[in-house]
Specification:
The complex is a heterohexamer, with three copies of chain A (277 residues) and three copies of chain B (241 residues). Chain A has 277 residues and is an alpha+beta fold. Chain A has a single domain, classed as Ribosomal Protein S5, domain 2, CATH 3.30.230. Chain A contains five helices and 13 strands. Chain A is elongated. The N and C termini of chain A lie far apart (58 Å). Chain B has 241 residues and is of the alpha+beta class. Chain B has one domain: 2-Layer Sandwich (Ribosomal Protein S5, domain 2), CATH 3.30.230.70. Chain B has a five-stranded mixed β-sheet with strand order 1-2-3-5-4. In chain B, a hairpin with a 4-residue loop joins strand 8 and strand 9. Chain B is globular and about 60 Å long. Classes of the chains: A alpha+beta (277), B alpha+beta (241). Chains A and B meet through helix 1, helix 2, strand 12, strand 13 and helix 5 of A and helix 1, strand 8, strand 9 and helix 4 of B. Strand 9 of chain D pairs antiparallel with strand 12 of chain F.
Chain lengths: 277, 241, 277, 241, 241, 277
């Protein structure tokens, strides 16, 4: 039996075992199906950034940094600031990550994180305009993944929102000569509310939240919903070449709404703790 | 915000909230491809070619137990209002990925070990919902190429415009509306293969939009069947015209 | 006998057979040496483009789209609009086409198509200037090759000229404040005449026009001439690592001038037909 | 030019001319890496991961008699005052090379034929002297990965600011000062593994700066040892806290 | 349009319409290359290196029955009026292709199966007609490398300037003239290996330009021979100085 | 014994022989340890460049060209012109050089050459400002390596300084309307002095200057110091995965200072010779 054939068999075996375990509502790390791993958040760790946060969800570790610079608005939205989300899955993060430009997984990750922030209107971009059509603030959010143990979508999203919430920027204004100046005054970013990303994996017929790398290796499908403070769904993404039944989609939205409340409280507490600490 | 639905409940292109845009599917439009199709869905115009199953280069990327599916969604520079440079954008790379993941569940890839199947989508004109139209056309092109399939894949978006849940958003509705939710299903197996959401929906709106999109996918599935039957059995014979 | 050695023998055999056939003035598809395959042209197929055309020459199929935007002129031609021709041989077009940036064949194709339009002065670029040295119209022509069966040079050239001829653009003007505005009025591109590209292949000692992929696979050399309405040669390109005798060059120019008249009429008729249809 | 040393001989951050910035080294900060470390040296914050020895792809790049060492020094976009695009700059490529050459002499690569060892440095925040801090951290991460070493490598810059030879330049001193000379040594073998010079030094200043940097490297070496001992033997046991 | 030919029939650089620019060819100018040459043709200054026949990497690109010829035409950033970035432009890629196709017919590649021959052209200064000068120099460098050849390849452009057919256009004539037609021939076999045309020529002008260029290629061929003889047999011996 | 194993043995043998030879203070080409190969310099060879020089150090051959253009200063140095040094190790230069973007060796080469010119303040960049913060001269220096036989650092550096010294540029000025104009007057670049790069190789325990390719193949470490007219060290770079003892570093600085004087005279004489010739 060749090495490759063997590894397929091993993989199927592992999946069968995991499904059996899940059918008893158990997971390899003893969590319940609807339990997240411990979430820890440190903010303000990069003094040169306007905002920053290191988030750990179990062994998954990401750092996000916010830089606010001046730039030109898009021609079709002259009265809005710009939001640019970029994620880099660094080669530090796992034995399988390679240096180089973001691959399709990293691009999907960045775009889903971006969508959660953008579609929930978390940042009021209309308040970041200095001269309509000509000068606006550009909010760059760079997410660096340092260690991968599953659920990059949620960890990256939490790092992003924690760095946005704690961002500080100088007040910019236009002087009498039409020049942009920055005052001494420091102000936070204009925030509307906190969107929470909840990612679920389907393994066999079971949905679980916050999958580890080990669980992701055998999952059939992944689905993420971002929920705003009012319980609205504001972004969604099904991933992986597996399917979801119509009922599983409905169930996933319900799980997302329930868990989002819980995680929002955890994040608020963690961010607050830092602010005091 | 511009009013996108008038007092008669009609949308800017005259459609009702749950009405699809005009749909046209052709099969076998490219001579060299193993399978091909052309779709018009509103002003979307997309051509799809399938090559494969074929040898994989480099060989070490081949899988011993199944074929690998590769998809490339690409927009022609002239397909949108402002010319798009030909290099793939981040948006095109993400859409290529979700299209592949939307098609793969329907294909019996285990039948073609150590091979690759390439699906190339070229958007000649984009008008909102191009990923859904592209999935619909790709499934037809895969069938035209004779790839074994568990089920067809049909796709359609629903969303929210001027406060109402609507079907199959066009370009303006996509950009100026409140939410867009592209969906693809396997119509006989009743499984979701693509689901994305951009924009806010309440719980109830989500369910309403989801149902509307599923229903539309079933209509689109009939159009897919008809296009394939027309090609392989002739129009008159099956009497579906 | 190895597979590779065998295929070399097969290729030579095929070429010998083709040369024998050509010596009887016959071709595999029963055309005469100087016959083009059927040419069909549809214009106006892309509503979002200023001009567009799908051209089929036999089974070769290309689509060209014209987009007209505003830009800055080159410093050394402040009084001329810009023309940018780009061709993409899409991976849809054949089992051998690969996704990725244009290779040397696609670049040569784009540059020869560009040269035919540019050197014949088909578009009067001096009429596309809004503010000399500062604002001009940029005419982007993108040619997408959808299916390859030989003679991409001529098919791409015909799609390009058909999309130029049928282009419509808003009238731009400079208002009293020096701002560029566009009026409601729609105007065609300023056209000087129609250049026609004629591509020939030498196989053995025979010249043929409009080669198919099968003929290109065994051709020794390729030569293209573009002829303007007055019968002038305005662009030329010999290709492939074969040669032409001095007499073959002369013959090729004569063929080009003769066939160009014929093809120009076909194209005019096809474009007109569309305009009416 | 701004005065960077005041009349009391103190620098803009209050240090004496031969004083190091606060230094903190942690070992084993990343779970997936075979070895890892985190360093803070002033406001420099750098995390390092070591993967290997591991198989080489493509195989023909492997060496029959030893491992190949590969280094990547990379700055996070938010690590500097003006956002840095994520693609490696020419500066990052040069620094990756000199870091590799600074570490390689300390490694017994002959023990791992046909393999590769990857050292990834991510600069989370840069504050002058990031290549030296990065080398110091990398040597610790290599030790944490259990790679056989001839000696540790410790690095520190010296230079010239407002006419005086100073140790361990911060960002402002680096940019506005007269000279910066990064140095790395193997502290037991007394060998220089990295030496660069940017800016003017007289013969005497060079010697003074060189000696100052060597001395500082020995202090840093003690911090490296302590960090490793703390991890492997616990803090209490060795009683160095 | 500027008047490019004066009333005496002389061109802006004082040449007659059918006069070549000063030509200088040197052989063996680079020590490492298997063959090399240097050409000055007017202000064109081009150096050419040939490496090969040599092994092909990756191996699957090798041909079982002949050598593959590869050419790279590249302009130094300082070779033109406005600095040219070092990355190959589309123009350089096209010219590399036509130069390869112009040289290949003269080479007996069947003598070197499974190998590659690389021809690298570096344009140190460009002055109109650099592709022709490059082909002329490349053929000499290939001969210097000892590659078996059926014939030499000599190249020269003719064109139209201020209404007259002229030979060997310089930079200004190329840019401001009406037409430029680069031509390369094998002078003994009387075969055209490169032919391009940029700009309008009547039927008669084309024939006149073609004849003028062919005649010039024969003159250039003599210069190629002389340069090779000078190198291999010494100047005095053949008494051609 | 496999080919690879054999080549390792051969390499070690060659190194042993070289070390033995060096221990007798001899080199393969009969030079003394502290002798450079013959240096020849031709300047003004590229008429279209502002300055240019071809330098040969033994069989190593490089060409540098200076182009001076107008551009914008960096925001943090509004009162300084720009200096951009780029080196290309052309595929002409050796059987091992490949076409493509500069690799890490070529980038290091460019950056060390740049550092020598920049840190010695050779060009007075403050005299290249036309409108502070808005318009300055950009001095592009492109170094093309044509043939490699070791010591690219010094050869590239000498070509760079020779092309700078002999550069000529039009005098630019700002007219009454704030437009940049160039006068007929030709002026040299503002030069402060000539920095000289001296590169040494350590083979075994011996330091030699100006290593050939053959010597570089077996060297343990490489070290370069750039010395200005006053004997100051103004740039330095140790290279290669070998080490230097503390004494060797000191010795290298002394050698650099001694040899720099000598080489500076040679270069001045060579450049002068050209100016007359």
């Amino acid at each position: 039996m060749s090495a490759v054939k063997k590894s397929i068999v091993v993989e199927q075996l592992r999946k069968t075992q995991m499904i059996e375990l899940l059918s008893k509502e158990k997971r390899l790390d003893n969590r319940g199906l609807m339990d997240f791993r411990p979430i820890t958040i440190e903010t303000g760790i990069i003094e040169k950034a306007n905002g920053s946060a290191r988030v750990q969800v179990g062994n998954t570790q990401v750092i996000a940094g916010v830089k606010i610079e001046l730039g030109e608005p898009f021609p079709d939205t002259p009265d809005k600031g710009l939001l640019v989300v970029n994620t880099e899955v660094l080669p530090l993060a796992s034995a399988y990550a390679e240096p180089g430009p973001p691959d399709e997984d990293a691009i999907e990750l960045a775009r889903v994180v971006d969508r959660g922030v953008r579609e929930s209107y978390m940042i009021d971009l209309s308040k970041l305009v200095l001269i309509p059509g000509r000068k606006v603030c550009v909010v760059f959010i760079d997410v660096n993944v340092l260690n991968i143990d599953g659920n990059l979508f949620d960890a990256s999203s939490y790092a992003t929102i924690a760095s946005i919430i704690t961002s500080k920027m100088p007040k910019f204004y236009v002087d009498e000569n039409g020049q942009i100046r920055q005052s001494e005054e420091i102000t936070p970013l204009p925030i509307n509310g906190i969107p929470i990303s909840i990612t679920m994996a389907r393994i066999g017929e079971t949905l679980i939240v916050d999958p580890t790398s080990e669980e992701e290796a055998v999952m059939d499908a992944r689905v993420t919903f971002v929920v705003d403070e009012d319980g609205n769904l504001c972004a969604g993404q099904k991933g992986q070449p597996g399917t979801l039944s119509f009922d599983q989609v409905k169930l996933a939205t319900e799980i997302a709404r329930t868990k989002a409340k819980e995680i929002r409280e955890i994040i608020k507490k963690e961010v607050m703790k830092n602010a005091k600490g | 915000m511009k009013e996108l639905i008038n007092e008669k409940g009609l949308r800017i292109d005259g459609r009702k909230v749950d009405e699809l845009r005009p749909l046209r599917i052709e099969v076998g439009v490219l001579k060299n491809a193993d399978g091909s199709s052309y779709i018009e869905m509103g002003k979307n115009k997309i051509v799809v070619a399938v090559y494969g199953p074929k040898e994989v280069h480099p060989k070490h990327q081949a899988l011993p137990d199944r074929s690998i599916l590769r998809c490339r969604y690409h927009m022609a520079p002239f397909s949108v209002d402002v010319r798009k440079p030909p290099q793939p954008s981040r948006r095109e790379i993400e859409i290529s990925k979700v299209i592949r993941e939307a098609l793969e569940p329907a294909l019996i890839l285990e039948e073609y070990p150590r091979t690759a199947i390439d699906v190339y989508l070229e958007v000649l004109q984009a008008d909102g919902g191009s990923r859904c139209a592209g999935i619909t056309a790709s499934a037809v092109a895969l069938a035209d190429a004779g790839i074994s399939m568990r089920d067809m894949v049909a796709a359609c978006a629903a969303g929210k415009v001027s406060g109402q849940v609507v079907l199959d958003l066009n370009d303006v509705e996509d950009k100026e509306g409140e939410a867009d939710m592209p969906l693809a299903i396997m119509p006989n197996l009743n499984q979701v293969t693509l689901l994305q959401l951009d924009g806010k929906l309440t719980s109830e709106e989500f369910e309403r939009a989801f149902e509307m999109a599923v229903k539309a996918c079933r209509v689109i599935y009939e159009a897919q069947r008809k296009a394939l039957i027309d090609k392989y059995f002739g129009k008159a014979e099956v009497g579906e015209e």
